[in-house]
UniProtKB/TrEMBL annotation:
Record membrane topology: Multi-pass membrane protein
InterPro entries linked to this entry: MFS (IPR011701), MFS_dom (IPR020846), MFS_trans_sf (IPR036259)
TM region positions: 6-22, 29-47, 53-75, 87-107
Species this chain originates from: Flavobacterium branchiarum
GO cellular component, one term: plasma membrane
PANTHER family: MAJOR FACILITATOR SUPERFAMILY, POLYAMINE TRANSPORTER 2-RELATED
Keywords: Membrane, Transmembrane, Transmembrane helix, Transport
Keyword Lyase: no
Gene Ontology BP annotations: xenobiotic detoxification by transmembrane export across the plasma membrane
Domain Major facilitator superfamily (MFS) profile: 1-110
Protein name stated in the entry: Florfenicol-resistance protein
Record-level Gene Ontology MF annotations: transmembrane transporter activity
Length: 110
């Protein structure tokens, strides 16, 4: 419960930080740095042997995820801002954010 709550808080805080940063330095560096941080944190969380280490790696995962999330949504906005299909694409991305976290525990139980 603690790791999920902290993950969601850090996901929100990270978006506030990485949004303006991606406007300033570009989407690609933010996306790649976020993906790298997420992979490293995932491996660290999988291999962690203590609860504090696990929580720390989960926080780093949230930082990486927030960077990737912001860069992806900003890229979609950049590409589809003035196109009619932009509403559909943005809706698909938003619905994924709602359904994937709900399906994750189900898939993990299989």
């Amino acid at each position: 419960q603690l790791t999920l709550s902290l993950y969601m808080v850090m996901l929100g805080v990270g978006q506030v930080i990485f949004g303006p940063l991606s406007d300033r330095i570009g989407r690609r560096p933010i996306l790649l740095a976020g993906a790298t941080a997420f992979v490293i944190a995932s491996l660290g969380a999988a291999w962690s042997s203590t609860a504090p280490a696990f929580v720390a790696f989960r926080l780093l995962q949230a930082v990486g995820a927030s960077a990737m999330l912001v860069a992806t949504f900003a890229t979609v906005r950049d590409v589809y801002a003035n196109r009619p299909e932009g509403v559909v694409i943005y809706g698909l991305f938003s619905s994924m954010l709602a359904f994937v976290p709900a399906l994750g525990p189900i898939a993990g139980a299989l």
